[in-house]
Amino acid sequence: MHIRPCTDDDRTGVIALWERVFPDDPPHNAPPKMLDAKLVANDGLLFVAADADTVVGTAMAGYDGHRGWLYTVAVSPERRRRGVGTALVHHAVAALRAMGCTKVNLQVRATNAAVVEFYESLGFEVEERVSMGMRIGDLTQKMGFKPSGP
């Protein structure tokens, strides 16, 4: 197994893995849509763990110049507990560090205690924060928001 940046050639394998590992994700997180958006960003922060030509894991990261984020760490169920997830997280964190990132955040569903334990074993800590979000379409409807610019 080796970890490398995701390419267009990985599309089928990444989508299949995400659909299998995240079957309950809402429609706005549809794997093809998420993958296309990340590949367009072209920031080099989507990694695949590959065994020959088979995608067995992914880690997506983001960096805004202030904080780094870790998203969609996914490992094929047959490959779990073999170090794939750990290697992916270490790889993504190293890439963020190389960009000047000093703190990495991530979100875990409150019902997923096993994943919380996994991240704690890697040095992440549960922080006292309130996580908030808003779908941009909701903003335009709820607040009468009218975007400016192009």
Q: Give the count of helical stretches.
A: 5
Write down the Rg.
16 Å
How many strands? 5
Main pleated sheet: 5 strands, mixed
Taken in chain order, the helices and strands follow as EHHEEEHEHH
- State the CATH architecture: 3-Layer(aba) Sandwich
List low-confidence stretches.
none
Name the overall outline.
globular
Calculate the mean pLDDT score and round it: 90
Proportion of strand residues: 15-25%
Helicity, as a percent range: 25-40%
Going by CATH, what is the homologous superfamily?
Gcn5-related N-acetyltransferase (GNAT)
Can you identify the CATH class? Answer: Alpha Beta
- Sheet/helix structural class: alpha+beta
Number of domains: 1
Distance between the termini: 44 Å
CATH topology: Aminopeptidase
Arrangement of strands in the largest sheet = 1-2-3-4-5
Summed up:
With 150 residues, this protein is of the alpha+beta class.
How would you describe this structure in keywords?
150 residues; alpha+beta; Aminopeptidase; 5 helices; globular
What does this structure look like?
With 150 residues, this protein is of the alpha+beta class. It is 36% helix and 21% strand. It contains five helices and five strands. It has helices spanning 11-21, 31-41, 84-98, 113-121, 136-143, and strands at 2-5, 46-51, 54-63, 68-75, 104-106. It has a five-stranded mixed β-sheet. It is globular. 22% of the residues are buried. The model has no long low-confidence stretch (mean pLDDT 90).
